[in-house]
Amino acid sequence: MGVVTKAKPTRKPRDRRHRYQAFFALAMNAWIPSWFKGGIFQGGVKGVCVPALNCYSCPSAMGACPIGAMQTFFAGLRFNLSVAQKKFGLYVAGFLATVGSAVGRMPCGWVCPFGFVQELVHKVPSPKIKIPHFLTYFRYVVLATTVVALPLLIVDQFGYGQTWFCKWICPAGTLEAGIPLMLIKADLRPLIGFMYYWKLGLLALFLVWFVLSRRPFCRTVCPLGAFWGLFNKASLFRMAVDDEKCTLCDKCTKDCPVEISIYKSANSPDCVRCLKCVSSCKFGAITSEFLGKREVSPDLRVKKPA
Amino acid sequence: MKRRLPWILLALSIGVMTAGLLLGEYRTVLEKAITVCLDCIGIG
Fold this sequence. Notes:
The complex is a heterodimer. Chain A has helices spanning 17-28, 33-37, 66-82, 90-103, 107-110, 113-121, 138-153, 164-169, 171-184, 194-212, 216-220, 223-229, 251-255, 276-280, and strands spanning 3-6, 238-241, 286-290, 293-296, 300-303. Helices cover 45% and strands 7% of the residues of chain A. Chain B is mainly alpha-helical. Chain B has one domain (5-41). The longest helix of chain B is centred in the N-terminal third of the chain and has 18 residues, at 5-22. The termini of chain B are far apart.
């Protein structure tokens, strides 16, 4: 007869997620000399898209923000078509879809520096506020309008549109590029005007919201998360919940950084796949699977008698 | 079909990305990325 015992917990990568987030944040912004030279990194590798919302105008950014790059293609599409230039944004769209079809929204939970910032700021003690679920649909509106429709439809006399999301919304750009560049490049300071204060105010509002709610930007605004979330149900990386083991104790929801009940929809577009629920489930009901390899919470084990 | 869908999506995505690279879109992204984006920092 088997005896249920508590095995010595083994620490998995998912238990050290903040270290991975810190590592990727530093790796994507590793060109420190730019901070002293007063410019931005301009190496040839910067055309490589990074799987995160990481502003390419951050002085030390090593790669290209895929949302910024995508808007640039949409903003220039009508001009490019008018002069028969074959630039359709396939590289960036293909990159986004490749990441999405492999792991879905996983980079949001493990790679994105702005997601990491939100989780750190949320640790500030304060009353906490839940985000109503209907607000999470707003990110699709942001994606459809500011990233696709407006850059494509509202153009100047030459056919060029604007990068609406970067210009009017993106608080990551303000935090990673707007503030640092103003500090290190004195010649930009005279250009500060309404737009700069608008973005600074928006960042301040978001920072307050980060303290009060869990990852509010990712859940309600981020167009990158909106796009990758669409792949969660059809990606190679999958989450699964064993209904027979699940006791509906809701521990997973309490621990979840985006407050979802994974037992209701294992591959919800809201899930950032941080795998915290796999660790927090004491019944081993939540599993993740990638290329046939299954991960399960290992705290409960059946020990054979001697 | 459900098991194959992720692989089909992945293959299509890599194909689209490769097509973009062959059309020289890497350079377009690079040119944008190495220029200070005035829109991003709020002075555009």
